[in-house]
Amino acid sequence: MSAALTILQAGPAMTIQDLGRPGYRALGLTHGGAADPTALHEGAALLGQDPNCAALEMAGSGGSFEADQDIRIALTGAQMQVNIDGEPIAWNASHLLPAGAKLTIGGARDGAYGYLHVGGGFDVEPVMESRSSHLAAGIGALLQSGEVLPLGADKGGETNLTLPRDSRFGAERVRIVASMQTDAFDDATRARFTETTFRRDARANRMGARMDHEGEGFATGGQLTIVSEVITPGDIQITGDGAPFVLMCECQTTGGYPRIGTVIPCDLPIVAQAQPGAALQFEFI
Questions:
Q1: Residue 1 — very low, low, confident or very high, per pLDDT cuts 50/70/90?
Q2: Domain span at residue 130?
């Protein structure tokens, strides 16, 4: 009989995520997937399994859980307070969760998104070749207390493995490349953009994150004449009030705001994991 994990108490923004569903942008559906895909690869390394195995993404805080069989788990992403039956356990590590034991995951100490991985992954029904919830598209939903999640077959392996804390937590430098409208911003504006220390606004979710800064906003001469075109996660749109907005994994497929640059994929988790008020500075490469 397959194992299952019961959600005793769900946090406010908990979803199932894998590496997403590429190939559907022409149909109006963006890639989606984990806000911090690096965390999925870390979990896969700790459990010795495919990084596309579905995991629980927990925004801000976790919840409490109980398994009906002994299972292997791993914890990655934003470090959260965690214990099994009241005994603290390590983050960025793999563990054995005994049947009937209570796993409790609290609030994030750093970062924004924590991940709970299980041996074999969560075996929910795939939609368009992915198990990821895509809330903006109406695929899946926030998980609720009382739900019972089926687990895939675990091929087994070691536990009590650990990984060092990655440099994406607390990092301030975010590397970007030129985008479609970068040249529409004059040299002085581009220089001011890279010299500015931004603060991640509290208004951020899986669609995008607003960047706050002191001083005047950023603009191009043709701000209002740009035709809507394809956009992608990592694009930095300059909105009507001159504030940069970094598009994230569930961004829309088209947009009409000018883009001053695009965050490279391996640095986008820095933005995803930045807490409100965290300092970020962009650098063209």
A1: low
A2: 4-150
